[in-house]
Write a structure and sequence with these properties.
Elements lengths: L1 H17 L20 H8 L4 H8 L3 H24 L4
Helix pairs in contact: 3-4
């Protein structure tokens, strides 16, 4: 029982050292906790290039329609990679 009391006291002394200090610098936290963007903002970022789909709809040439649709897909992929993965392509 005496060993238990000594061990408990040593833990308490160790914890007293951290009371009132910033312990977040000692603990690894996921980046999502500090992420400033909400999910709504992330989804809005994906719709930033929706004008390309409008241009594709108005275009008569099927090849240019494909170009606009591919450009929208690539832009959305890049935005997705930046917003959701935290890294660019």
């Amino acid at each position: 029982m005496d060993a238990f009391v000594k061990e408990r006291d040593s833990y308490w002394k160790m914890m007293q050292k951290y009371i009132g200090s910033d312990v977040t610098s000692m603990v690894t936290l996921p980046v999502l906790i500090f992420e400033p963007m909400t999910m709504l903002q992330k989804m809005a970022e994906l719709m930033e290039y929706s004008y390309l789909l409008d241009q594709a709809d108005e275009c008569e040439d099927p090849y240019m329609r494909l170009v606009y649709a591919c450009e929208y897909s690539i832009d959305s992929l890049v935005v997705y990679a930046i917003c959701f993965e935290g890294e660019g392509i």
